[in-house]
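User: I'm curious whether this sequence folds into something compact or stays loose and floppy. Could you predict its structure so I can see for myself?
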Amino acid sequence: MTVITAFPEIFAGFIASSISGRAVSNGLVSVNIVNLRDFGRGNYRQLDDYAFGSGGMLFAAPQLTDALKSVAPGFVVYPSPQGVLISQEIIESLARQDHVIIICGHYEGIDERFTERYVDLEVTVGDCVLTGGEIPAMLIADAMSRLVPGVVGKAKAVVEDSFYRGMLDNPNYTRPADWEGLKVPDVLLGGNEREISRWRRREAVSRTLTRRPDLIARASIREYLSDKVGLALIADDEACDMSGVFELCEAYKLGRPCVVAGSKELREQVKSAYPGAKVFGSVKRLLEGSRDAMVVKVLGAAETNSLHSLEVKRRCLEHDGDIFFVFARDASRLRDIAGVACWLYEDDVAIPLNMKIGIALDRLLGVRS
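Assistant: Here's the prediction. I'll summarize afterward.
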């Protein structure tokens, strides 16, 4: 990573201290600071000039260009109030780049022509205006460094952070267990890892729904649902095509796919064609032995009482029992099944059922790469 700034001294403490400093000293992260003043013009090493028409000061394009060309080519990021709001997804994308170059502006910013020609991404840390781009640059560098293996002591801590899967983190506590009458939840003191994991998932869900419900739309929620989440297909008069369905179930941790077939002959056809599938004579038989199961019927076009996928995601997160996503080639075959109806695509879209299943699972559960 390279940071181009007129105030390199600001980064001295950042590079030398804390987790980021250790990452740099251990060679896990490389942060190269380029002094923009080395490329100033004239006796006073001038970097800025008045903006045409407004009177504010801007960093000039020639000096910025000289500084940029002095380093190896890379993905150029410019923090500015006009940029896209920075997110964990953007940080992860930047972390995959071979070389990230951050341009730190000041005053009224930088010449727009430089931005148009050289900047790949403008980002903002929020709806506020800072005196320069150095603080956002440190934020980006710190967030990226956390994703480098070995920087954070426990790799698991990274994937449990807020926003990594699109959700907020659960509450965390340390000793003493009783502080000024406020006690740590008993489940965290019991040592039952399964129950602790369930508690953390529930608390993360509750916190996200309460504080940041807007995150649900892009969140990967599979890890926050109950242990048993399955997929079932309603077979027509002939065995349904399940090519690709097994792979989808594996990717979304749904176990073996289930098929509901009314006739014994059809059940035998399914077993013969797809020996790895679980076959049932009815949805009632499918749900036997499940814990407070919720059925999500995935329909085509919106119908009476059907819900938007975002509302279904919310209900799945709030549900503390088993969940089954049920599909059929003909949505009318799902109308007599009790459960929550969700619409995701138009019935007349000429794509195979397995592709529709993939679309639905991605919108409802999501899998982060």
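Summary: The longest strand covers residues 75-85. The first helix runs from residue 12 to 16.
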